[in-house]
Amino acid sequence: MTRLLRHMLVAWARNLAANRLLSAITILGLVIGIAGAILMALVARVPLTYNHVVPGHERTYLAVSIVRSPDMAPDYQQKSPGGAASLIEANVPDVEAAARLMEEEVDLRRGGAAHRETIYWADPDYFDLVRLPVVSGDLASALRDGRGLVMTQAMALKHFGRADAVGETLEVAGQPMALRAVIADLPAGGTDLAAGIFASGLAARSGLSLLKADGPGGFSISVRTYLRLRAGASAQEAADSIQSAVAGLVPPFVRNAYRLEPVRIDQLALHEGFHPGARERLVIGSLVAALVLLIAAANFVNLSVALAGRRRREIGVRKANGAGRRHIAGQFLAEAVLTVSVATILALAASEWLLPAVNGFLETQARLDYAADPRLLLWLLSGAALLGLAAGAYPAFLLSSLPPAATLRDKGGGAAGGAWVRGALVTAQFAILIGLIIATSVVHRQRVFAMREALRMDIDQVLTVTAKCPPAFVAEAAKLPGVRAVSCSGESLLSGNTFLPIEWRGRQLMADIVPALPSIFPLYGVRPVAGTLATLPPGGQETVSRVVINEAAVRDFGFASPSAAIGQMLPSLSDEPGGSTGAQVVAVVPDFAFHSIETAIEPTLYLPQAPGEWNGGLVSIKLAGRDVPETLSRIDRLWRATGNEGPIQRAFVSEHIERLYLGLQRNAQLFAVFSGLAIFLACLGLVGLSLSAAQRRTKEIGIRKALGASTRQILALLLWQLSRPVLLANLVAWPIAWWLMRRWLNGFAERIPLPLWLFPAAGLIALALALLSVGMLAYLVARQKPVHALRYE
Amino acid sequence: MNQLLQVSSLSRAYRSGEVETRALDSVSFEVAAGEFVALMGPSGCGKSTLLNILGFLDAPDEGSYRLRGEEVATLSEARLTRLRRAHAGFVFQSFNLIDELNVAENVEVALLYRGADARRRRVEAVLDQVGLAHRARHRPRQLSGGQQQRVAIARALAPEPDLLLADEPTGNLDSANGAAVMDLLKSAAAGGTTVIMVTHSALHAAAADRTIRMLDGRIVGETRL
């Protein structure tokens, strides 16, 4: 048996060496495909194992705050009211325990050294609920008095110079506290905890001790509330009970909109509310990586069969000498597993090398640490063996079933058979490739649409400064060289986070409210579609009596048209006593928004309110676009010169928009990267197949040429035969791509129409790539003198 | 006489699309154990097809093939594989050595699937028998045609088969190498191995105990020395 294995190993190694080019093409393709899959699996593993460091994570929940308003995207916060934990623990039977964390940046002092550090003030029983792995000390009792402190190993090392520092003291926010336990370092990006220091919430100066109940009408969410549900308890039922339990904390004006909902801590990373699009990206990324791996595996199968065609004689000899089907199949399966294993080892090395770049690109913290996670290596090697068996199964079946008499009769390296399967695999590869080209293009076009046309405003060279319209700064900024215009608005222009319920003709409507000076519209190139801005006071009004609305508001309020809305009176736009008694619509502007077009543009009321009335503000500055660095320096100097406190907080609006569409951009880049890989792999496979076919068909080409065929005719014949599966691939790819991309686009409230010309264009690109990759080879084969070709055998 | 093979009304046809070629048409003959039989006839007369069936590489469409009295014409592929392993050795016109293996490894292939013991010694012995022990580590392409065919004979003899089937073993060789190969086959037959050889050469056929002549898939004559 050992001798037989050694024999197989020798045959495998020498065959690889004898067919160096084709073997290299096969292994390179596999390395790329497997490396892509490994990287994607590592990236996917982070959110899929999120908070798994917490024992019992399946029953551990974080109470999150959700503010839902009609027609608006819900607002999610991981914080909750300070008083919720005790109320829930006391009144919700499904909840076994509740404990809070409160994040705060505090001063830490030890000896002469001082650090500013973010810490958590934790309830005494926090670690009963979240039992993080302890390294030293008694974690359970660590926070039971007001002096207790728990740190991760890294934090202990940072502040005490050694990880094993239990008993050491440290001044936290001016009060001495003692390190009672050291816990293992938290996996980077693998938990919802951002800080590595936990101080007892019982300390006199702890944020939790100082937390005051909200005053009448006030409502604040400032702590992280963790809950452990009883075994077998339903999260949905617990969620309903939680609403009743905390109802008393929520003031009436937000009670309908606010909900405190338990979210399992291991599901936070892929929660749509906190990480919009993360799940979709994970699914898309995994799917695309799997497709690329499929292309690589198809290459492997095709090239294995093509290569094995040259080993027909060997198979015949082995069979004539007593080898059964089992032996031959076993040999080729073992060879496939060996080849895939070699490719996997190379892919692992490539993954390690590429992982930092991938982490940087996707902003993930995926790790490839065999020592810390030996199971990972086992998984990867098992995966390689499975892939080898799956990819080797068809060639092994095909080759082991070759009749020995026929293989021994053959002189040349004829194909091993299974031509239709190989054709189908090439078709499938190119179908995936065409699909990816279409997807890349659609995602890119939607992104460009989102960042340009869908904005319906001109954000080019517009800078915002976070400030409530300081008069001196605004007046002087307008005079600076390189500045075209300056205007002011409330912060909600960008954030869209201020909304107001409005009673309108018996209906409750919810509208976004943006206080803004009238000059904000021309600054962003927004022109009214009806009415005029001229009647609005340039400096705003103390009591708003006129209002500008957008087209979405026209529809929501039920006006027949923008023109019909002009002159209409809207009800009071303030919930404060003594606020406005109503406002007349003087202009309607197009729907423009600074938020993602994944959700529809909200009905919005632009109030020409005087800046003194705003909660927060933004100064928008339109630059001329020349000498931008100098202009920015002048603005910074002016900020200080006009007596403003603190450093200037400025950003270009385009940066804000880019941040909004970061997810979309990532999808576009992900598709582009994997499409590139797919193109490379598919072309590589095609080159390999044509190399093999060229060698196999040398005699045929010689005969054709001897019978009068020209180089051009032979070239056309070869290219046509190679193009056929690519053309056929369009028929497979188009309907699937059309259906998938339509589904994807439907996720956007505003979207591009799916351009039909993209489909034939993608097909043409794939064909051009295929022809380019095999054209030169086909030309060289077609040019051969017939005498060489006929002498081949 | 102790009969090794009994072939009766053996037929085999190949189909390619709608065209049927009858390679063997009701062939019957017997071969005694230790006999050296030459098969002669023009190209396409069915010699190689017959040899493949006799060596369990192929199965007939009709007729009977008995090996030591046991019917083997209708056996499954797995049973045929076991019969090959137990009884047959092959020598081909084009040598059919595996390019990626060296001479010793090529010979060893014949022992690998038979689970034979002391393979290395047996390989050395047969290579010595064919006069190529000094070439054991060479690759086939480093040998002359005659040497390659001697390696093929060594491979066929290595498992000590009852039946040695040689398909034009001298077809690709010059006369000197051809004579050397014939000596090896004669010595195998003298050692008790049944040898059936397809040949176009009357000179080489004359070395056999009996010559069977074929035409168009039928036996048309037989000469016994």
Task: Summarize the SSE layout with pairings.
The complex is a heterodimer of chains A (793) and B (225).
Chain A: H1 2-18, H2 20-48, E1 60-67, E2 75-77, H3 84-91, E3 95-110, E4 113-122, H4 126-129, E5 134-137, E6 148-152, H5 153-160, E7 169-172, E8 175-183, E9 197-200, H6 207-210, E10 224-229, H7 235-246, H8 252-255, E11 258-264, H9 278-308, H10 312-320, H11 325-362, H12 374-400, H13 404-409, H14 419-451, E12 462-466, H15 471-479, E13 483-490, H16 492-495, E14 499-504, E15 507-515, H17 520-523, E16 530-531, E17 546-550, H18 551-557, H19 562-565, E18 569-570, E19 583-589, E20 604-607, E21 617-623, H20 628-641, E22 650-652, H21 653-660, H22 662-696, H23 698-706, H24 711-745, H25 758-783, H26 786-791
Chain B: E1 3-16, E2 19-32, E3 36-40, H1 47-54, E4 62-67, E5 70-71, H2 77-87, E6 88-91, H3 103-112, H4 119-129, H5 145-157, E7 163-167, H6 175-190, E8 194-198, H7 202-205, E9 210-215, E10 218-224
Parallel strand pairs in B: 3-8, 3-9, 6-7, 7-8
Antiparallel strand pairs in B: 1-2, 1-4, 4-5, 9-10
Number of helices of chain A: 26
Give the helix proportion of chain B (percent range): 25-40%
CATH architecture of the domain at 3-95 and 162-224 in chain B: 3-Layer(aba) Sandwich
Spans of chain B of at least 5 consecutive residues whose pLDDT stays below 50 are none
N/C terminus separation of chain A: 37 Å
Question: What proportion of the residues of chain B form beta strands (DSSP E)?
Answer: 25-35%
Which structural class fits the helix and strand makeup of chain B?
A: alpha/beta
Q: What value does the Rg of chain B take, in angstroms? A: 17 Å
| Coarse morphology of chain B | globular
Rg on CA atoms of chain A, Å: 34 Å
Task: Kindly report the greatest chain-chain contact and the residue count on each side.
Answer: A-B, 27 and 31 residues
Report, as a whole number of angstroms, the end-to-end distance of chain B. Answer: 16 Å
Tell me about the biggest sheet of chain B? 6 strands, mixed
Number of strands of chain A: 22
Q: How does the major sheet of chain A shape up?
A: 7 strands, mixed
In CATH, what is the homologous superfamily of the domain at 3-95 and 162-224 in chain B? P-loop containing nucleotide triphosphate hydrolases
Q: What percent of residues of chain A adopt helix (DSSP H or I)?
A: 40-55%
Poorly predicted regions of chain A are: none
How is the quaternary structure best described? heterodimer
Report strand order across the widest sheet of chain B: 6-7-8-3-9-10
